[in-house]
Amino acid sequence: MITDNSTMQLLQQEMAIFIRRAEAARIAYLSEHDCDRSTYLLLQHLKKNGPVGLKAMSTSLQLDISTASRQIASLEAKGFVERTSDPKDARVSLLQLSEEGSSFLRRAKELRHQFFTLLLGEWSQEECEQFGQLLQKFNQTVEQFRQRKISLLKENEQ
Amino acid sequence: MITDNSTMQLLQQEMAIFIRRAEAARIAYLSEHDCDRSTYLLLQHLKKNGPVGLKAMSTSLQLDISTASRQIASLEAKGFVERTSDPKDARVSLLQLSEEGSSFLRRAKELRHQFFTLLLGEWSQEECEQFGQLLQKFNQTVEQFRQRKISLLKENEQ
DNA sequence: TCAATTAGTTGTAAGATACAACTATCGATA
DNA sequence: TATCGATAGTTGTATCTTACAACTAATTGA
């Protein structure tokens, strides 16, 4: 249990700034050759999770299905994603990376890697690892909180 | 210099997720009584930096002045911000927190503090501190990078 | 005094996101 | 098996954050 106010203060403040800065930096230095945050996450997800339906995907990414639907539509238009209808359920169209999507993702990853290497040139390996792990832990904490909250609500409803 | 690919991989991935999750969590659990990220940062800035003009403020916050102008306009409409024209320069209107703005900010801070305390209930004091510091360091790194980049560009131009 | 600069506003646009209304399909049961 | 409730997905609408560009009004330096 944390009671130290100034720690929280710092955390909040820097989180708010971080969200703004991180995005701005990506846009300023990568945008030409990169894709946006959402595209990146979507492509990444498709690469890892093979052919999946929109619902399944939006659920794992914690996105509203309408949001995912639009984003996928735009990726499809660019030729990065292909759909085949699920033989077992005609409502579902299975999504997967196309060749182009795949190589685009590879390229985007490389670029990001280069950019981060440059940006974090003065950081030690250890700091980078720690930061990555703390971000991951935070994300997991939010996820767990969300689930706990939902189940609490459900219990209350009953 | 970092060369470890998987560290970078983790960092990128978790950063992208973090931006989404952090915002979603705030909205989901605080939105009723809270203000958005930008409002929070603006109010906070005004509190710390007393009466300032729009330009000065948008520069320190690294926001386009048009963005800041609109956000301030909306805060003004809510009665959180007051403007007085600068006697030394009629183009400038000096912005400062009103009483309501001030107490709203106090309340928002408290709420956030409560929420974070709940969310990070399982985190140790040390982890919180570390995370806050790493976020801060990252923000500073981006800021420095931006300035270096700009001055490099200027040198090249000459 | 007049041209160039600066502060600020407003028009327009784009990306991320959500909710709600709708269509098409599925599956269980009466 | 015909129907009705649930589910997958799309589309309309809306909000938030942000930026760039065009504009106005005030300032300042030559």
TrEMBL record, chains A, B:
This is DNA-binding MarR family transcriptional regulator. One of its GO terms (biological process) is response to stress. Pfam families: MarR (PF01047). Keywords: DNA-binding. PROSITE patterns: HTH_MARR_2 (PS50995). InterPro entries: HTH_MarR-typ, MarR/SlyA-like, WH-like_DNA-bd_sf, WH_DNA-bd_sf. GO terms for molecular function: DNA binding; DNA-binding transcription factor activity. Residues 4-140 form the HTH marR-type domain.
